[in-house]
Amino acid sequence: MMLKLSIEDIIEKIHREEPFHAVSNDYSFTLKIEAYDYYVCAAVHDGHQFRKELWEYCLHSEYDRWYEEDPATRQMVQSHPIVIAGCDSRFEYDLNRSPEIAVYEDAWGKKLWKTPLPAEVKHRSLEKHHNFYKVVQALISKIESKHGAAIVYDMHSYNWRRWDREVPIINLGTKNIDHTKYDAFAQTWCNVLSNIKLPHIEKTSAAINDTFQGNGYFLKYITANFENTLVLATEFSKIYCDELNYILYPEVVHAIETQLKTILPDHAKSFFDRFID
Fold it and tell me: For 99, which DSSP code?
């Protein structure tokens, strides 16, 4: 059963190592913890909510927002024991940006707001960003202190059609990880992902730092605050939808989810066994 909990109650449950499934009391993110395992899955850009008081200010359509979000990334990892996912659109505030720039002024070359947002409206968005990271801090602290190390699979997607060259189906961004400690694990994850079988795709290509380098705040925040936690920014190109016509391909999403059920915990175990050893 999913609960509606305050940030304080969520953090208290984490401190007590209680399994739970909750949405924050402002409905900005969900957190499921079935067991306090050594790996975490995240989908910070999965959300599509866009609160009504922003509508009169926004110049972008719902499709414009969906196009830049990461739809179905939570579904890809929903079967794993720890999953944290955003519910709000990145157009309200971006969980993968630092607080100072989390509320966009423009988005992908287009002005976002008809007029500047009032301070109190912007504050309501940034408060949700702040609360999310309070929970991330508590969660990773608990996992790392319990196991000595942790690995976070930071799931994203990107619009492959906007590139004027061939791009990989899956890209890992590793620029901001500790290369001395973690490069081997990133390369192994890349190799494993290249073996995923997808409907309508002859061969799954995977690369490191090809389209994106892993410059997101979520990765940087965890890396800066935790000595023994690796974050792997994992981006699927939007081969699982028709990004130009606003159509999801559920059979492709299902195929990704099904295969990640096996390969993701296997990779996490290999990381944990080798790193702790």
Answer: G
Give residue-wise pLDDT tens across range 119-133. Answer: 999 999 999 999 999
Angle, CA of 26, 113 and 108, to the nearest 5°: 95
Residue spans of alpha helices (H) in the chain: 7-15, 62-68, 73-77, 119-147, 179-193, 217-225, 250-276
Please, which residues bridge with residue 236 across strands?
Answer: 157, 170
Domains of the chain, each with CATH number or no CATH: 3-276 (3.40.630.40)
Element (H, E) at 235: strand 229-237
Residue 34 near residue 54 (C-beta atoms within 8 A): no
Euclidean distance between CA atoms 45 and 179, whole angstroms: 26
Report field, pTM of the whole predicted structure over 0.85: yes
Residues in the chain with pLDDT < 50? none
Inter-CA distances, 269 with 170, 177, 257, 263, Å: 21, 19, 18, 10
**3-state class of 217 per DSSP?**
helix
Q: Where are the alpha helices (DSSP H) in 104-118?
A: none
Which pLDDT does position 275 carry in this prediction? 81
pLDDT, residue 161, reads 86
Nearest to 183 by CA among 214, 226, 144: 214
- Output the pLDDT for position 276: 75
